[in-house]
Fold this sequence. Notes:
There is one protein chain. It contains 7 helices and 11 strands. The strands form 2 sheets. Strands 1-2-3-7-6-5-4 form a 7-stranded mixed beta sheet, with helices on both faces. A 4-stranded antiparallel beta sheet has the order 8-9-10-11. It has one domain: 2-Layer Sandwich (BirA Bifunctional Protein, domain 2), CATH 3.30.930. The longest helix has 22 residues, at about 170-195. α3 packs across α5 and α3 crosses α6 (about 195-205). With about 260 residues, it is an alpha+beta fold. It starts with about 20 loop residues before the first strand and ends in a 6-residue tail after the last helix. The protein is globular and about 50 Å long. The protein has helices at about 35-40, 70-75, 75-90, 145-150, 170-195, 195-205, 245-250, and strands at about 25, 50, 55-65, 100, 105-110, 110-120, 135-140, 210-215, 220-225, 230-235, 240.
Amino acid sequence: MTLYYEDDPADQTTVPQLPPLLRAVEVPAGQDVLAKAVAVAANTEVGTVFYAERIDRMQIAVRLEPDVAVRQAGQMLFAMMIGLGDSIGALAPPEIAVTYQLPGYVMLNRGRAGMVRLVIDPTAGSDDVPKWMIVSADVRLTADEQDQAEWSQTPGAEQTSMAEEGGGFISRTRLVESSCRHFLAWVNRWQDDGFRPLYDSWMQRLEASAPIDFAGGEQAEWLGLDEHGGALVKLDGKASSVMPHELEAVCGTPVLP
């Protein structure tokens, strides 16, 4: 049994009902949700949740205003990944195993079905407090035959969707609502208890068998996370730490076809 099941899922045209600290703003189909959020970030209220009108994907981008330096604020990458994983775990059938892979992939039964990204005010250095930050999530809910044909021609990790893994009854609206609630809960936990609870939860769902691909084509051996959320990797026999806000520069931007 799932924790949440609807024979008649939420109307896809319904505005998601979010916690009081968050405000939903719909982004029309055909527009990039993350790009929209970044474009207006400097003039947008904290807690604004941009969400996609499209219903084959659950796409959100949350505007934050950290009061800590960039290197610590980047830990929100893990808060969103965990929140998304908890949300799927609560809504989907128990046979769907949720795992994580850097630089920000969310895996369902070892297939890539989602990704989480960070965009931080580019004027802020690693030790500066940024004026704004956007953390986004993108989950593939359904896929048609054309999508699946493209996956078969795409080298690399296996691709999947919520529907293919048995979670096709979960609506975009419900996943937006649940993901935002779980994310906010982990942000509150992080504010109260620091990064350690996030570290423990994230490591429990780590897809450790997969190497980390670097932008230059190299594959780094995964060693773990440090106490600040830095990815500990070994490349050419040398160990190094890559902070969350540096992951895309080192590994390349995660892509969900």
